[in-house]
Amino acid sequence: MVEVIYHYFPKTEVSISIDEQILYELAAEYGTPFFLIDEATLRSKLKELEDGFKEFSGVVRIAFSMKANFNPAVMKVFISENILFDVTSVGELFFYLKCGGGPENVIYTSVTETGEEFYEVLGKGVRHIVVSSFNGLMNLIDAASQREVTPKVVIRVNPEVHVKAGVKASCRSGKFGVPFNTPSLDSATSLLRTILHNKGLIFEGFHFHLGSQIEDPTCFVNALEKLETFILKMRREFPDLHVRIIDIGGGTPVSYGTSVPTPEDIGALVSKKLNTMIQRLGDRFMLIVESGRFLSTEACILVSKIVNSKVYRGQKFIFVDAGYHLLLDAALLHQEYPQEVVPYTESTEDLKINLAGRLCDTYDVFPLSSDSKLSGAEPGKLVVFRNVGAYSIVFNMPFHCQTKPPILLKKTDGEFILVRKGETIEELFEEEGGNIVTSYSID
């Protein structure tokens, strides 16, 4: 029995337990590498995130940021839980609606904010729109007028607070959101005034996103303090200003072998501040907590096969049939996905282990986690990469003519089903235009 266990500090342990024989049977049937998603873990991570904010005195809604994993099987699980979805493109909206989601549960947060985009999104029934530029707001107003609908608008702000995180999104030069007040039209002050003076819009509230893999949750409190000060200031100009939504974005971290704050740690701190804000503002607003990484990461593993090894100068290279084309963050962010050899056996070899991919690229060597267990690695055995459910499937690349691997889903009843078939080399060739008729003369 191989048990793929996910650790993060200090409260919870979630596991995908798979019989070793079944794992090899799946590899024999579908080939390697392949992704395996666990439905039960998806649902348990959602409940854990919801429970983290149980001390908030208002309504809490979780929003899945589908950019992290837009596999339809994953989306259908979360749609069945009736949560919100953070959608950032018309392509994502197409996937969401095709999976059976309703437009009333969409928070549309565009980066480009074009008029054509808003026109299409509003035409699909989406009404909650996040704006983060003056031009974007003008485009929304024009699209709403053409569609003859009244969107509910949320302003995305950049609180410009210090954030300790794997990826920081709140800084003076950040691309997301607008500062609270600057001489430019691209400020929260300017956007709020424009919205409140326009009868074709409904102002809903504010949104911010501080970063990914947040290590110190006090940044949320600092951002909320600046937001509260701004709201009280604007009420001097607009006494009837009310806030219905505060969206604190994502950032709930996942452990890849190191200690991180839990949803309970973050939720308790944020809820205390928000409850104080409710008392001071007199508005019982809804709290939206977004998450892509936390909800999906631990629910997925990548199963690969060791295809070669070599030993020299006190080190052992293990080569698998996967590569960073499937786990791009291993190269971009040096993400330390925990790995485990299956079957795992203790070895007396006193060698430094290097886990390498099959790509002809120097960077295709996987960083090792403190939770990695690679003892006894030999050709023919399997290597399981854990915590790969976010920003892996969506980053698949055809580098070296590599095809997309199959994706399996382990349902809550224990059944394994194929939710994405593996791409063939012929399909990749056709996708790249190989069957388009062309003729060239060869001199």
Helical residues, percent: 25-40%
CATH topology of the largest domain: TIM Barrel
Tell me the number of helical segments per DSSP (H or I, 4 or more residues long): 12
* Count of DSSP strands: 21
Which blocks of ≥5 consecutive residues have pLDDT under 50? 1-14
Strand content: 15-25%
Backbone structural class: alpha/beta
By CATH, the architecture of the largest domain is named Alpha-Beta Barrel
Mean pLDDT figure: 93
* CATH first level of the largest domain: Alpha Beta
By CATH, the superfamily of the largest domain comes out as: Alanine racemase
Largest sheet: 9 strands, mixed
Calculate Rg over CA atoms: 24 Å
> Given the C-alpha coordinates, what overall shape results?
globular
Q: How many distinct domains?
A: 2
What would a concise description of this structure say?
This protein has 443 residues and is of the alpha/beta class.
Question: What is this structure's SSE topology?
Answer:
Blueprint: E1 2-8, E2 12-18, H1 20-30, E3 34-38, H2 39-52, E4 60-65, H3 72-80, E5 84-87, H4 90-98, E6 106-109, H5 115-123, E7 128-131, H6 134-147, E8 152-156, E9 165-168, H7 188-196, E10 202-207, E11 211-214, H8 218-235, E12 245-247, H9 263-281, E13 286-291, H10 293-296, E14 300-312, E15 315-320, H11 329-332, E16 339-342, E17 352-356, E18 365-366, E19 382-385, E20 407-410, E21 416-420, H12 425-431
Parallel strand pairs: 3-20, 4-5, 4-13, 5-6, 6-7, 7-8, 8-10, 10-12, 12-13, 15-17
Antiparallel strand pairs: 1-2, 3-14, 9-11, 14-15, 14-19, 16-19, 17-18, 20-21
Helix pairs in contact: 2-9, 5-6, 8-9
